[in-house]
Automatic annotation (TrEMBL), chains A, B:
InterPro entries: 6-PGluconate_DH-like_C_sf, DUF2520, NAD(P)-bd_dom_sf, TM1727-like_C_sf
Record SUPFAM superfamilies: 6-phosphogluconate dehydrogenase C-terminal domain-like (SSF48179), NAD(P)-binding Rossmann-fold domains (SSF51735)
Protein name: DUF2520 domain-containing protein
A Pfam family recorded for this sequence: DUF2520
Sequence ranges assigned to domain DUF2520 in this UniProt record: 115-237
Domain of life: Bacteria
Amino acid sequence: MIHKIAIIGNGKVGTFLSKAFADMGLDVSVYARNPKSASQKKLSELGDDSDLCLICIADRNIAELTKCIPAQKGILAHSSGTVPLEDLDIRHPNRGIFYPLMSLQAESEVDIQSIPFCLEASSESILNQLKSWAQSLDLSYYEIDSKKRKQLHLAAVISHNFSNYLYHWAWQVLQKADIDFEILKPLLSQQVKGLSAADPILNQTGPAVRGDLNTIKAHQELLENPELADLYQKLSTLIQQSNEKEL
Amino acid sequence: MIHKIAIIGNGKVGTFLSKAFADMGLDVSVYARNPKSASQKKLSELGDDSDLCLICIADRNIAELTKCIPAQKGILAHSSGTVPLEDLDIRHPNRGIFYPLMSLQAESEVDIQSIPFCLEASSESILNQLKSWAQSLDLSYYEIDSKKRKQLHLAAVISHNFSNYLYHWAWQVLQKADIDFEILKPLLSQQVKGLSAADPILNQTGPAVRGDLNTIKAHQELLENPELADLYQKLSTLIQQSNEKEL
């Protein structure tokens, strides 16, 4: 079973996972180019004897890094949503992916057991090792290959990063009207609570889906920034089109 | 204190509120042009002696309706996010607004106490009556005048209706890759949990805010629909611009 873990990287993901794994009683060491504390080790000290060496660094540096570190006897995996399995250097016999589908901030209070982990590996036996380990830690996991993971990452960007921008936009509107943004929180919580496997368009409400052109026009007049008025129009048109397809 | 309530309208909002108020032990009657059950009354039977007559019909019909119904001795209020107070006919001496900031579906299991109600009234004394009543029922309420309510409604459309469209878009991406949409739910729940009064742009993550042009390009190649590729670009550009403003 996987017990000795080397985490490469002391950014948001590396910090979060190393803490969570240590709290679960695993033997965790953090390696970084620039250690931030006495408990972190220099990358040059990395050996080859961890059960799992998990890379948590910027996507663009992963392939190169795997060429430079000692060939791992255990599993070498990365935690990225976009880097394909083939980018891990073949010198490491056991390669895998252990991608947490979660936006992890330095201070995020996320329960690791709530995170869906997406697993892939260079062989069935390595995949099974990752799966049994995840199971033993009571983690949620999905088998997702590199091609599907790309689509999943795209879907995460659309639903999470872009909706965060919409929240920012709504924040600006409320700011101008001197209304506390938190007033929207019950509405948005309820929306996410209602998500299931079904197409969310079935729950679409608002002026666009109702074809309420008066409200759409009034809203666009409230938006002084022409780029945002244009985005409002574009989203409203796409909602109307989706609705027409449904009918 | 408000006890006898007439709800006009048997759509989503009227049905939800009438059930919730009845569950709270209030004396509720539902009036509708087309009653759907024996317990609902015809609009022509509406009297003038309710403590609160609450209009829950389509925005565009509210002003006209208030001209046609008997002048109410109690409070006449509507539940709309967009209709101004002045649209309530002046024949009714006590006019108000009681707007639930929530997307209410026919089957929504929403706790009424979680809903922020936005209150406004034609006089300080009517506003105080609505406030004490809301307080006695343990409801959350905010004083929001018609001008602010317009901005609030716009912010709700942006953050809720438009993000629902993004969820639909993400659902389509996952559908094509044969991945269950529910995999995104922990990510999206965590995002909403993290909302506070602060500007959400401070929590912005993803390729656009990182300036990760390779990922943006790869994502746009995955999007076969040119309108959606264009929307992806527009949102990414707006995120990059917001970030530059922050720096």
